[in-house]
Amino acid sequence: MQSALEKARVLVEALPYIKKFYGKTVVIKYGGHAMLNSELKQAVITDLVLMKFVGINPVVVHGGGPDITGMLKRLGIESQFVGGLRVTDSSTMEVVEMVLGKLNKEIVALINQLGGRGIGLSGKDANLITATKKLGKDQADIGFVGEVAKINPQLLKTVIDEGYIPVISPVGIGPEGETYNINGDTAAGALAAALQADKLIILTDVEGILADPKDKTSLISVIEAADIPSLIEQGIIQGGMIPKVECCVKAIQSGVTTTHILDGRVPHAILLEVFTDQGIGTMVK
Ligand SMILES: Nc1ncnc2c1ncn2[C@@H]1O[C@H](COP(=O)(O)OP(=O)(O)O)[C@@H](O)[C@H]1O
Ligand SMILES: CC(=O)N[C@@H](CCC(=O)OP(=O)(O)O)C(=O)O
After folding, report:
1. Distance from C-alpha of 280 to C-alpha of 168, rounded to nearest angstrom
2. pLDDT for 92-141, tens place per residue?
3. Gap from CA of 229 to ligand 1 centroid (Å)
4. Cβ proximity of 82 and 49 under 8 Å
5. Site: Transition state stabilizer. Where (predicted)?
6. What's the ipTM?
7. Is 206 inside any structural domain?
8. 1 within a domain of the structure (yes/no)
9. Does 233 fall in a domain?
10. Residue 239 belongs to what domain range?
11. Per-residue pLDDT, 1
């Protein structure tokens, strides 16, 4: 069993990190695959609430891809992806918005249950995320998939200062009032840039960026943004990992200090990354 002294040592180890990040903003992309079960969800939300209580400002952007796919299936609609993005016709958009809205409130309720002050927003609230139509690979029409046009972070700053943990679903509003489905990673990167966050943390379902996607032990712990394009060209980074690394690179170029791709299946991955010497996953800087 852990001795009392060992427990104290762990707490003391957190002090320099609490000092370093006190008052800073950390954007966390909470992906659908990192919402596997209620124990894991509870661990993620506990980390967020703890962060807020020690003076760091977490902002959550959530996904929900697996739940959206599940609901579409129940309605007899097959999901189709082009370059990692869901082809979104108007009825798919309705389902996307409904499922993300439900997930959003589940996360908010869990934050509140664990003693934090959660507030759920979609990109439509206070024009937080305005969007334009995004074309797919080879200029394909992929429907109501949105590209972030502008982030209006004023409301977010207000609720953060009031002590809330904002939870944002990646739905954008277009110039004609149309609704857009935005990839959760892309939305998180754009929000981190607009808030000039200190960290962007993307939770996913792998250890981090792997040098060989079939070998779990080939984790790349640190990578420079400049080295990413060649890994994509070589086919080492593929599929759903591409939007993640691209948004890390964009966020870095826009002034976010560090970005991290972490294994959301590891309980308390966020705490381990933010408050301990070891750090986990891949840091893109
Ligand atoms: N080099 C790589 N390292 C790690 N994962 C990779 C790599 N290239 C592709 N991937 C894939 O990217 C996936 C993560 O993207 P995605 O499934 O979209 O996650 P999420 O649902 O968490 O947003 C991994 O499960 C893995 O299959
Ligand atoms: C355009 C697009 O693909 N949008 C995503 C939005 C949700 C998301 O990003 O969920 P994960 O983070 O769980 O993958 C979708 O419809 O699945």
Report:
1. 25
2. 999 999 999 999 999 999 999 999 999 999 999 999 999 999 998 888 99
3. 16
4. no
5. 29, 244
6. 0.95
7. yes
8. no
9. yes
10. 20-284
11. 63
Question: What is the residue with the minimal CA distance to atom 22 of ligand 1?
Answer: 204
Ligand nearest to the CA of 204: 1
Q: What's 51's domain CATH number?
A: 3.40.1160.10
| 68 token code pair | 């959206």
Residues with CB under 6 A from ligand 1: 31-34, 63, 65, 204-206, 209-210, 213, 236-241
DSSP characters over 185-246: HHHHHHHHHHTT-SEEEEEESSSS-BSSTT-TT-B--EE-GGGHHHHHHTTSS-TTHHHHHH
Which residue has its alpha carbon closest to ligand 1 atom 18?
240
Ligand closest to CA 184: 2
Q: Total structural domains in the chain?
A: 1
Nearest to 133 by CA among 169, 168, 176, 96: 176
> What values do phi and psi take at 162, rounded to 5?
-80, 0
Q: How far is CA 125 from the centre of its chain?
A: 18
The Cβ of residue 54 has, within 10 Å, a number of other Cβ atoms equal to 15
CB 156 within 8 A of CB 195: yes
Nearest residue to 283 via CA among 240, 206, 219: 219
| Best CA proximity match to 85, nearest among 140, 39, 30, 128 | 140
Is position 4 within any domain? no
